[in-house]
């Protein structure tokens, strides 16, 4: 049927209508411009993210110089020299360094930052360099007291360095595996010893002072050293307070979680179990109820599962996952204590047998795991139509290779037999205990 001229004229774009662009979707030029703008914005955002300054997690002390050098594309020694020279200008370089340290994030990653330089011991050494000459000066002779200007500045610098060493050892070095709590304790004892000696020295100076200025200076310096001792131990008290607060918060959360679990068990979980019993094992409603029940139990008891699951736990979890995708119900029964892990060949063959039962039989499937001193055995029984292994086409290798062949290669045996009374299929897997022990030893 031909199209009329008026229809063709109506379909043609008018003078004020923009022609279709060459985009694959046939979009207009405005849509193309919008897409180009969005792509440009995404590229700019990606570039901005790539240009963001970060500190490397493996660094000398703080990673500020290395991060800034990488960000600017400069050698690291130039950046460090610039910080040192800038610090001579009324401390501007030091302030910039501390500002970048406080605001620059670590580079992305999961590993804990590690530092190669013994920063706490360097601070202790600075404290020794500042305090020991003051001790020697004050002990120059009986009745001699040096001028206040000769000890006041170096003593305060030594006290600050000792306090900084204690804080660094507690807040930063304690979390590192190469140092830890013993390193923190050593630093704290050393810093405290330096400050105690300083207090004793200026107590003696206080008794020998002959002028008001020297007396006031010695008293203030001794008081500063005493405050320094308190500040050396303050980070430890803060860290312990944080640990106690975190433990209390964890305990409160566990109590709330237990109350929620008890309430849900008495209400929602029982309702879901009742729905499954009333709806039947193979119905869609029962499958949804099983999935919701499993997800709820996993959320409630997520912290109770071991990180390296055993065979029974793995088969229960796998059966639960299959129940979501297939009209099947798995009943896993375990007798004895199995040492077989979820990563073993026996677990893989059992999972394959459960998958075949879910695909081809459905309904109720029983999984029986029995562990004895001699072997571990797994029986997977379904009530489906059944099959004979000899009748399975040769190109179907699921049972022959994934179950029987896998068990044979691992040193065990696998059989596929008719079910009880000729109904369904029973898969028998046998794995010697000595093989299980050797596999676990290699892992």
From TrEMBL:
Annotated Low complexity bias: 7-22
Protein name per UniProt: ATP-binding protein
InterPro entries the record matches: HATPase_C_sf, Phageshock_PspC_N, Sensor_HK_TwoCompSys
Database matches in PANTHER family: NITRATE/NITRITE SENSOR PROTEIN NARX-RELATED, OXYGEN SENSOR HISTIDINE KINASE NREB
GO molecular function: ATP binding
Segments forming domain Phage shock protein PspC N-terminal: 52-105
A UniProt-annotated Pfam family: PspC
Region (Disordered) residue spans: 1-31
Keyword ATP-binding: yes
Superkingdom assignment: Bacteria
Transmembrane domains' residue ranges: 83-104, 116-136, 148-173, 185-206, 218-241
């Amino acid at each position: 049927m031909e199209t009329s001229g008026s229809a063709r004229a109506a379909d043609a774009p008018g003078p004020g209508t923009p022609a279709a662009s060459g985009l694959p979707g046939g979009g207009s030029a405005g849509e193309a411009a919008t897409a180009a703008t969005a792509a440009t914005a995404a590229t700019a955002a990606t570039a901005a993210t790539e240009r963001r300054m970060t500190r490397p997690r493996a660094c000398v002390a703080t990673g500020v110089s290395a991060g800034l050098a990488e960000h600017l594309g400069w050698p690291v020694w130039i950046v460090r020299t610039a910080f040192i020279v800038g610090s001579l200008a009324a401390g501007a370089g030091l302030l910039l360094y501390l500002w970048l340290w406080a605001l620059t994030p670590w580079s992305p990653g999961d590993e804990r930052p590690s530092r190669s330089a013994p920063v706490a011991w360097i601070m202790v050494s600075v404290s020794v360099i500042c305090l020991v000459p003051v001790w020697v000066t004050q002990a120059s002779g009986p009745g001699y007291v040096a001028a206040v200007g000769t000890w006041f500045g170096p003593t305060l610098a030594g006290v600050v360095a000792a306090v900084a060493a204690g804080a660094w050892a507690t807040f930063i070095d304690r979390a590192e595996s190469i140092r830890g709590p013993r390193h923190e304790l050593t630093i704290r004892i050393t810093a405290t010893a330096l400050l105690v000696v300083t207090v004793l020295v200026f107590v003696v100076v206080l008794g020998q002072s002959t002028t008001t200025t020297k007396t006031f200076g010695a008293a203030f310096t001794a008081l500063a050293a005493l405050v320094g001792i308190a500040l050396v131990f303050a980070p430890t008290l803060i860290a312990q307070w944080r640990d106690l607060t975190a433990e209390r918060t964890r305990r409160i959360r566990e109590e709330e979680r237990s109350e929620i679990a008890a309430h849900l068990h008495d209400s929602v979980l029982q309702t879901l179990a009742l729905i499954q019993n009333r709806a039947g094992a193979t119905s869609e409603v029962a499958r949804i109820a099983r999935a919701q029940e499993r997800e709820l139990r996993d959320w409630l008891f997520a912290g109770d599962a071991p990180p390296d699951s055993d065979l029974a736990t793995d088969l229960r979890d796998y059966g639960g996952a299959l129940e979501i995708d297939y009209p099947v119900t798995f009943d896993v029964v375990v007798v004895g204590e199995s040492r077989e892990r979820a990563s073993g060949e026996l677990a893989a063959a059992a999972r394959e047998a459960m998958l075949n039962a879910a695909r081809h039989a459905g309904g109720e499937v029983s999984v029986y795991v029995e562990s004895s001193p001699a072997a571990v055995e797994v029986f997977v029984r379904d009530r489906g139509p059944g099959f004979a292994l000899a009748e399975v086409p040769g190109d179907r290798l699921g049972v022959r290779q994934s179950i029987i062949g896998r068990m044979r290669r691992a040193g065990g045996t696998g059989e596929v037999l008719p079910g009880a009374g000729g109904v369904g299929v029973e898969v028998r897997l046998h794995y010697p205990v000595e093989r299980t022990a050797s596999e676990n030893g290699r892992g």
